[in-house]
Amino acid sequence: MSQHIPTHQDSPVSPDGPGPERQALLNVRSEVAKVIVGQDAAVTGMLIALLAKGHVLLEGVPGVAKTLLVRTLSAALSLDTKRVQFTPDLMPGDVTGSLIYEAQNSEFAFREGPVFTNILLADEINRTPPKTQASLLEAMEERQVSVDGVSRALPDPFIVAATQNPVEYEGTYPLPEAQLDRFLLKLTLSVPDRDDEIEVIRRHSAGFDPRDLAAAGVRPVASALDLAKARRAVATVAIAPEVIAYIVDVVRATRTAPSFQLGVSPRGATALLNTARAWAWLSGRTFVTPDDVKALTLPALRHRVSMRPEAEMDGVEVDDVLLGILATVPVPR
Q1: What number of other Cβ atoms are within 10 A of residue 331's Cβ?
Q2: Do residues 186 and 41 lie in contact, with contact meaning Cβ atoms separated by under 8 Å?
Q3: How confident is the prediction along the chain (333 residues), in pLDDT tens digits per residue?
């Protein structure tokens, strides 16, 4: 059993129509759909992460358009993006940048690494050792990097979109819990259903080239300024005390669930609040409902818990446990 973020078909329509900032973000979603087929929930999740200023972990088997999703989203938003292929021999300086000796003036100069961008695509992040994975932590948490004692601010906006293959694949390293907790959402991209896969193959047979997004009709429909205005609007979305209490109750229930040996931290509760607020705004509401919380519980919490070995041996899935919690925690009325 699985449950995903609601898609644009599920969004209620605001009676006053979308404002300019929300319309710009909705246009981005439509633009990405020109290239990405059958992954509406992942597209929505990426927009929510940008609105909530958080990082995203994209998981799925190779070939389900994880990389293409990030590139297309960047193009539609006029944002700069850089890609790092994580490999077993990748060094921290290959990500953050390093000091380079310049012979002409006999001085060391800082050469920026690919982390100096708006959306950093960290491809197959779990194929590199923990030391290099950890080099992203400061950038993700502080939006800066420190080299030789000097801190350098990263651009705004800045998020990391990291792809990973399922952990049972050969040659993968589990991500440290401290790093997993820095990801706002974990989105799972599944193999498309039959009709969607037919559409994907039809587009390729008609000449679609994933390396040429402009030829596919993708154009910039929003900007970093639109995103900044949208973020300010999201911050005004109201959340009632009883809905805040509901978020806390859901999170606390993960700490006593028999199948979990590690529950969700308070940081996870904050992530659930921020993402539910972003989804409410994207849906045209000025307040958060319990249904918004339910919609974001799986992607916001599934990577912040740890299963007991005996539960894993019994075939229990994280999402199933979280769905069970949602079914038992009382919903405010």
Answers
A1: 16
A2: no
A3: 344 565 544 544 444 456 888 999 999 988 998 888 888 889 999 999 999 999 999 988 777 888 889 999 999 999 999 999 988 888 888 888 888 877 788 788 888 889 999 999 998 888 887 777 777 877 888 888 887 778 889 999 999 999 887 655 556 677 777 778 889 999 988 888 899 889 889 988 888 888 888 878 889 999 999 999 999 999 999 999 999 999 999 999 999 999 999 999 999 999 999 999 999 999 999 999 999 999 999 999 999 999 999 988 988 899 999 999 999 999 998
Strands 159-164 and 306-307: unpaired
Q: What is the pTM of this model?
A: 0.87
Spell out where the chain has E strands. 55-59, 81-85, 97-102, 107-112, 119-123, 144-147, 150-153, 159-164, 183-188, 260-262, 306-307
DSSP label at residue 291: H
Do 97 and 108 touch, CB atoms closer than 8 A? no
Exposed/middle/buried for 224, CB within 10 Å: 0-12, 13-18, 19+?
middle
Q: Which residue reads 């039809």 in tokens?
A: 202
